[in-house]
Amino acid sequence: MAFLVLKVLHILSATLFLGAGMASVFYKVTADLSGDPRAVLFASRGIVRADWLFTIPSGIALPLTGITLCKVAGIALTTRWVLVGGSLYVLAGLTWLPAFWLQHVLRREAERAVAEGTGPTEAFLRATRVWAALGVPSFLAAVGAITVMVGKGIVVGD
After folding, report:
1. Cα 88 to Cα 5, 113, 126, 140, 151, distances in angstroms
2. pLDDT tens for each residue of 68-83
3. What is the C-alpha separation between 148 and 86, in angstroms, rounded?
4. What is the mean pLDDT of residues 105-134?
5. What pTM was estimated for this model as a whole?
6. Per-domain residue ranges for the chain?
7. SS3 73
8. Calpha distance 126→109 (Å, rounded)
9. The predicted structure's pLDDT at residue 133
10. Is there a contact between 42 and 35 (Cβ–Cβ < 8 Å)?
11. Of 145, 4, 9, which Cα lies nearest the Cα of 82?
């Protein structure tokens, strides 16, 4: 029973981790394309809030539940698929962390644009480009980690 509960928590955490990131991209791109500084600000605030509510807690839960699942199931942490999946997860996190910081910069720049009644600043546009450049490898690494974990030995061998 404990294994099943852990596995469900692990899968839910992976879903939240990836889903919150996908939703953030959707809302940021949609708001940016609208050209409305108020929409950009609303989306930026929501993205930062969603990270604190969903991405960070699920990002913490993933390795905790994963390591515990391995221990309960008797799977060595040195098993190839565990190492590859875990490494991809770490890569996703390492590319996400600076993007997380940039989301706070983007929110501040959006607040400035609304307060001054202007459009996006050069700092906003530059931060958006870097955010996107970090987001692509983060997303691909997260998808890769999920693929490896679901496929286990089939994907990378034992």
Report:
1. 24, 37, 27, 9, 14
2. 999 999 999 999 999 9
3. 9
4. 95
5. 0.88
6. 2-156
7. helix
8. 11
9. 97
10. no
11. 145
